[in-house]
Amino acid sequence: MADAWDNEPVVTNGPQLLLELAHEHQMDHLLTLLVHRLAESPRVALARIWLKRPGDRCGQCRMRPECPNQTECLHLVASAGQSRDLPDDRWNSIDGDFQRFPLGVRKVGWIAANGQPLEIPNLGIGNPWIAQPQWIQREGITGFGGQPLVHRGEIMGVLAVFARGTIGELCMQWLRTIANHAAAALATARAFAEIESLKRQLESENEYLREEVERRSAFGELIGQSAALQQVTQRIDLVAPTTANVLILGESGTGKELVARELHRRSLRAKQPLIQVNCAAIPRELYESEFFGHVRGAFTGALRDRMGRFELANGGTLFLDEIGEIPLELQAKLLRVLQEGKLERVGEERTRSVDVRIIAATNRDLRQEADAGRFRPDLYYRLSVFPIEVPPLRDRLDDLPLLAEHFLERTARQLGRPKPRLTRAVMQQMQQYHWPGNIRELQHILERSLIISAPDRFRVDLPSGSTSAAGSNLSAGVESAPLPAASGGPATPREILTDAQLRQIEAENLRAAMKVCRGKVSGRGGVAELLGVKPTTVFSRLKSLGIEPRVDF
Ligand SMILES: Nc1ncnc2c1ncn2[C@@H]1O[C@H](COP(=O)(O)OP(=O)(O)OP(=O)(O)O)[C@@H](O)[C@H]1O
Fold first, then answer.
1. Sigma-54 factor interaction domain: from which residue to which, for each copy (predicted)?
2. Is the pTM here over 0.80, yes or no?
């Protein structure tokens, strides 16, 4: 009996479907689109897609006895169609009898195993390809056509239609074209899904690493309960949730960086990056590129485009440590970014916008620097909206016991030694010292002391005489060796020196050099030139030895 649509082609909307395929990048959507569009043709009873995937339910699979290879099979992933006589009976489910096909078994398995199309024009009772003859008969299905989904030689699966009527050469060609496009689109969707999952993996790794760094960082918490420190934490709490710029003031080693990290941690930007720049460590000619980035070829050595620190900190916080070191010419550009949130990479005209909160720190008196013309007053006012002054350790000696316990415990753990007991005598010694290098110095002295102390007797290796300057003697806690001459050519120690003694000599030498050069580090007549090292090395040595670069000289 001929149906009314006998003359209609099986594939009615091929060109439209190809266009739609090109725009869809999500695997599920793509599969649904394919079968539903094909099933829109009145002559298509059922359109289905199976994809090759690892065997997943071999235990329950009714085709298991026929399955030659139980590591891989065809999974039904999309289905669309409807009954001829019962329009509400839709065949969109991907469960049921044919949800898995072994490779090489029956029509669909044969197509996937051979990578060849298969058309069966006269499905009827007795046809060996038919698994459910009653269904075929009841629904008036007479044709089957299937095409392998092949992309770059890889057989990904099978696209098949059951038709009411014969499929024919032309429609098989259309199905071939659709299958080719579908395979390419599926490969793209698979690549997108892989990228997405790698991205998610990277994001979670990144999140994990950030947490890990935070956990491991020495910058955990501000330790101390003195009234002076409590004032600092109160100010942190006040300003952290706002967007105000913060200027942290205080001597070297007082914990300004730690305060900056706490501010970021307690701010609404805590999940965004905290990018740190040590302004004293950037060579003059690289400031602009370091801050604002550059494009390839902007200067010799600019081999590729590079983001500056401002862009890296976008959405988060930029911590400008030792801000007093920024050269005057760059201060104007910095001010513009602070005011307008706009910048240009070196060598590029395009203006970029950034949203960055600035936390700056300095151990200089910036107002004095501004009065002396070394710091732009407008930048100073912009930065100092909310200053936080971190007191020196000598003004909060109440915190010494807690800090000392903390550092000793940490160092002992790192050295794999038991934590020594801090005697009252040791505490008294420490409280009498004036701590010019503040908490950093405390940390170093305790580390050194632990290393050189006998396991059962902790002695603190303090420079003797808290008021002494360049001529101080050696430790109060260990036997001291006589000092070599501090001037007149290379030192020739008569005895082996401890690390503490060496650091003491280094500190004295550096202080003497700073004095001779009147505190000037870089350029002609500066300490770096005198000592024959780079200015950045001088700054980092000053920092590690706890020497204030200017005030003392
Ligand atoms: N309250 C504190 N509790 C625990 N550790 C602290 C505290 N304050 C400072 N430290 C530690 O002391 C060291 C020096 O602190 P930090 O680098 O923050 O000082 P700074 O003022 O930024 O120094 P500089 O001006 O030289 O850069 C760090 O190892 C820091 O972890």
1. 222-451
2. no
Of the candidates 69, 21, 12, the residue with the CA atom closest to the CA atom of residue 39: 12
* Residue of 225, 229, 258, 405 best suited for mutating to test ligand 1, as the one with most atoms within 8 Å of CB: 258
Residue 242, pLDDT > 80, answer yes
| Ligand 1 probe mutation, 217, 254, 544, most atoms within 8 A of CB | 254
Q: Do residues 253 and 317 share a domain?
A: yes
pLDDT > 90: percent of the chain: 47
Instruction: Check residue 234 and give its pLDDT.
Output: 93
Residue 488: which CATH number?
1.10.10
Q: Is the pLDDT of residue 239 over 50?
A: yes
Centroid of ligand 1 to alpha carbon of 392 (angstroms): 11
**Percent of the chain at pLDDT above 70?**
88
Q: Whose CA is nearest to atom 12 of ligand 1?
A: 440
- Which residues constitute the domain of residue 52? 14-194
Closest C-alpha to ligand 1, atom 18: 255
Kindly state whether residues 71 and 88 are assigned to the same domain: yes
Tally of structural domains, the chain: 4
The mean per-residue pLDDT over the stretch 5-19 comes to 74
- Tell me whether residue 222 is in a domain: no
**Binding pocket residue ranges, ligand 1, CB within 6 Å:** 218-219, 222-224, 250, 252-258, 321, 361, 363, 403, 439-440, 443, 543
Q: Are residues 141 and 44 in the same domain?
A: yes
The Cα–Cα gap between 273 and 376 comes to 28
Q: What is the mean pLDDT of residues 212-222?
A: 56
Q: Is 352 helix (H, G, I), strand (E, B) or coil?
A: strand
Task: Answer yes or no: is pLDDT of 519 > 70.
Answer: yes
Q: Candidates 439, 538, 547: which one to mutate for ligand 1, based on the most atoms within 8 Å of Cβ?
A: 439
Considering the domain architecture, whether residues 365 and 475 belong to the same structural domain is answered as: no
Strands 386-389 and 72-81 turn out to be: unpaired
Query: Got the DSSP string for 366-384?
Result: HHHHHHTTSS-HHHHHHHT
Q: Examine the fold and report which residue of 325, 359, 391 is the final residue of a domain before the chain moves on.
A: 391
Same domain, 123 and 167: yes
Minimum mean pLDDT range among 239-243, 436-440, 509-513: 509-513
Q: Do residues 257 and 367 share a domain?
A: yes
